[in-house]
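seq/struct pair 1
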Amino acid sequence: MSNHWRKKTISLVLGLFLLSGMIRANGLNLNGLGSKANSMGGAFIGLADDFSLVYWNPAGAGFLTRPLFGALATDIMPTNRYQAMLGSDTSIEAKTKFSHYLGFLLAYYQPVSDQLVFGLGFYTPAEIGTTWKGEDFKSLTGDVAYDWKSKIGLMTLSPLVAWKISDRLSLGATFNLNYGEMKWSQWPGQLEISPGTYADPGQYEEGLHGFGWGLTVGLLAKPADWLDIGLTVKTPTTIKFRSKINMYSLSVIGYPTRSEVRREVKWPWFIGGGISVRPVERLTLNADAGWSDWSELKSLTTTYLDPTWADLMEANGAAIRPLDWKDTWQLRFGAEYRLSQHFALRAGYYHDPAPGPDQTMNVLLPTFDVNGITAGFGYDWNGLSVNWGFEYLKGKNRQVTSEEIGTMAVPFQAMPGTYKMYQVIPTISVSYRF
């Protein structure tokens, strides 16, 4: 590889390992939890009438009259493709390996009076990653098949309290204790250890973990028997990650092979509203709109505690990497039709725009304008409820050109090429009202 392309690779790949593995569909969040909710396009803020309400709108618990327990399992199966010509001698045709990213939700709610309900939820608001075939990137990595994989997971424990102010109005809130984990491996590119002198550090490996907290506040109103209106606000959550980063081949040039690091990643404000309408006895129609404050993620900073690593990463432009994300609005629509007292059919659609611009698009941090098609069914009998849902997410193809990247103040942090994505997500849940 020429010095020209080597320098480009240094800039783009060192930026990647600070950012990789954070994507479910867009941003740092799942698009929702709950078989009933997800099969209705995730339009559930204005309904919030099953055990997944701890995620959607905690005020829904205020209308519970019986204890409720529920369990959910979901399997996220993403497929990404990447095609690029990065020079006359560097072409890439890559596809991610078939992978499973499992998510869950457990929740229990206990009414203690006619107005007051306590609850507890334990769930995964983020659980996804990418696993590429190292052979597909050999033309970029000196004909060596390094591992290219990433994963981010977030587990949240949420104590809940809800107060039914009146027969038609409820207020609820949760305290969210979050545990985050970030893992990935890849080739970090040739490092410039002195002016004009480069070294190959070999395989890069990172595993970070940390804690953070936030709040969710919800309001649910029932102004008429056929109409529900909901509002949910999630406060920002900053996870303070820490652990060690390894690049074992640095020992060949006399550098330490690992360094402890610190990194903070911020989940933004979310404000969403929803409406649920029952125009006829068996039909329910839902619509939600949600705003995420992704523009807070302007850049990502990593602090290397080893002074040698700190100097090396600063010299190679890896300590601070821009994101330049933008705020987004999600639109969600869903419907449920009850064929009988026991059996219901559901379907939905949602649109989720990409928060990231072309200038920060790369194989380990791909964001897409997503269109989601959902469907499912539910069966209820004597307090027992079994629900199944299915989502198909299709990302709009993205074409990133070298000219777009070259105009940026920090060039080549992104990878030019064509990006494609789709995801298949089945989910199943069981709950019981005692």
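seq/struct pair 2
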Amino acid sequence: MKKTMQRRAENKARPADEAKWRAFLQKDAEAEGKFYIAVKTTRVYCRPTCVARPLRKNVAFYDTSEEAERAGFRPCKRCHPGGPTLSQDHAARVAKSCHLIETAEREPSLSTVAKAVGMSPYHFHRVFKAVTGVTPKAYALARRAERLRKGLAGAGSVTEAIYAAGFNSNSRFYAQSSRTLGMTPTDFRNQGKGRVIRFAVAPCSLGSILVAASERGVCDIMMGNDPVALARKLREKFPNAEFREGDAAFRKTVGRVVGLVEAPDGKIDLPLDIRGTAFQQRVWEALRKIPAGMTATYGEIAREIGSPRAVRAVAQACGANPLAVIIPCHRVVHRDGRRSGYHWGVKRKNALLRREAAEE
């Protein structure tokens, strides 16, 4: 009777064990920390990603390293299961590399940073991009651009600020200044002085919506309850820019944007002035591919742009989206279906998704 009950328990556990065995064969990084394999013949236990190749009949599974050790198994000397997981190790190395990049007076080479964190340049480049969503070079450029933004306000000249931020030459910086700052460094230093931005605020069923456009195209769309507060936020971005209320022609543009709120499945073809980092641009482009009535998770967007581990960076890019509705960040949800984190309020996000679903 006792043996029969034991066999039934083993049969019940077998499907879960087989799933763990498949994860081990695939070296699935997602399984890290969820279970450990123990090899009965060697009395060693390993991570699910270990390169060991035991026979299935010799393997047992434990949920924690403590359970494996209590059962008489010792940690593998190759995968070190008692230490941090592979993802934790990568995160720590990337954090160290980010600090090195941020504190260096001049941009360090890829090989220099990789050596400092104990990796080969190729492996480090791949791991850094997987964790952060951007390459080490793009990260270094973003940090220099941040230093430049801070330095332009107090430097004696633009050239002085460029060199102080770590750029090696004027010509090299100016070749990418528009992408780095969203405008020329002189314009940025003047906080939009001499730049004309047209805008208008219109009512919609979700409150008020502000649409602003530069000479290049629509550059800002905000939603809220207070039209005055929306206009104030826009002016705070570039306090020295010249703002003009939109004329009748511009209000037609605003009407088309409002139409997207009321009929979310509509298409809109307007010139856009979207400025952000290379990573943000990739995320925003992926968001525009999500059809009305559909949703995607942050993880799915990360995989779509080729950076499957950059889920947090994708969420940050969604939060930085300057064009509500046109770039439909409201269509992105958490893996468990939660709809939190919308810049313009979860209620508006839910309303937009309900309308899109109703249009299907």
